[in-house]
User: Which sequence fits this backbone?
């Protein structure tokens, strides 16, 4: 499959890794929108959170379980924002589920 995040997971494309476990990988976003901008992705391909189902819910849950660990590794004690985009209107450009973790600054309230 020609998926950039699958390629990052399997090492074909390099990344700046900040956290990894059996189920997920977290790495710095190439084009950061905040002082801290990390993407947390499952190691298996799921198109988006809209594709969550009874079969992959454990994998999705493992990614959620990793979020506080990633936030701790990034010293985001003061808070952070988690975003996952879905489809065209949601602004999703990479069709492999990923949670953006944004922080390191007081983020604006406006989301669009
Ligand atoms: P989205 O628009 O929610 O699909 O987010 C995709 C994100 O992936 C964007 O913020 C990109 O900057 C980021 N991105 C794309 N390619 C890479 C890459 N090779 N390494 C790190 N981040 C990437
Ligand atoms: Zn993928």
Assistant:
């Amino acid at each position: 499959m020609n998926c950039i995040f699958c390629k990052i997971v399997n090492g074909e494309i390099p990344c700046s890794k900040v956290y990894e476990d059996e189920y997920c990988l977290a790495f710095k976003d190439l084009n950061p929108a905040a002082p801290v901008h990390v993407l947390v992705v499952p190691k298996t391909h799921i198109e988006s959170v809209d594709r969550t189902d009874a079969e992959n819910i454990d994998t999705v849950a493992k990614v959620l379980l990793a979020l506080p660990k990633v936030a701790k590794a990034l010293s985001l004690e003061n808070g952070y924002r988690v975003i996952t985009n879905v489809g065209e209107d949601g602004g999703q450009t990479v069709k492999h589920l990923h949670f953006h973790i944004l922080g390191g600054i007081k983020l604006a309230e406006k989301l669009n």
About this structure: The chain has a mean pLDDT of 97. The beta strands are 17-20, 24-28, 36-42, 81-83, 99-103. Residues 4-103 form a domain with the HIT family, subunit A fold (CATH 3.30.428.10).
